[in-house]
Amino acid sequence: MKRPFKQVYAFRRGFIKPIKVLSKTHSYYKYVNWLFPIGRAIYPAGFCRLPELATAMMHVVNYPYSKKVVEGKDILLAKEAGRHA
Fold it and tell me: Which of 4, 19, 36, 71 is 20 to 30 A distant from 42 in Cα terms?
């Protein structure tokens, strides 16, 4: 964040569920993906799907966000805003 870029954001997320078409993912995902719905129900700000994260990132780049460190709950808000923009 000390570099001379116009905008810099750090996305902090817990568990990111990959999409099925990805071939280069960690092998442990096939063992822990079944936990995703449970984790999302208990702690929604800590679990997201890869397309949700991508939507949030695109929204933050196109519509500058007030925070430079984007936490889980902020990612969910940006994702929803990006979907409606």
Answer: 19
